[in-house]
């Protein structure tokens, strides 16, 4: 396996590391995510995501993607085919849009990272028809994209992803007092208040995995 990152950006090995770290953190939080979903949804968010990311790990054991975009596309196709409920189509669309945004680039600099995150967020918006403040995963993704864009001015690839992860975590927490406006949770009205959105919670975990992989790659402070 090649070095995870370069001075110019984050390469395919980083993308693979991100997916592997995502699989691990989803597995570790499988029960907690399902408990969040049980309070306001179907109760299967953690189980579904764990199934999908376990399938991604199996795919990576078979063949290592040559570019970040190829890794994102593989993840998208796997999640769409293996994950039930809303999570599969939403995360699948996010990774597919990210793959399109970065194309065949060998490594992602801060500008391309922001493009990937923005495309992923916009894909979720298009698929789920959600807006910020409606107690969905968009409440994690939108602040993540905004923070990433701000950090890209003079920051390293790792700086971009660290900013995105921190903003996503804060965004997920901020869903606690919201009334749900989309999905099954919307049927609960005010009873959804006080419960964290499971999609926002899992988004924060996955974006933190991306940042951890970038820091591990040694690109922090490298710039682009």
From TrEMBL:
Q: Output one GO BP term.
A: glycerol catabolic process
Residue intervals of the DhaL domain: 13-212
Q: Which InterPro entries match?
A: DhaK_L_YcgS (IPR012737), DhaL_dom (IPR004007), DhaL_dom_sf (IPR036117), Dihydroxyacetone_Kinase (IPR050861)
Keywords noted in UniProt: Kinase, Transferase
A GO cellular component entry from the record: cytosol
Q: Which Pfam families match?
A: Dak2
Task: Return the protein name.
Answer: Dihydroxyacetone kinase subunit L
Name its species: Arthrobacter livingstonensis
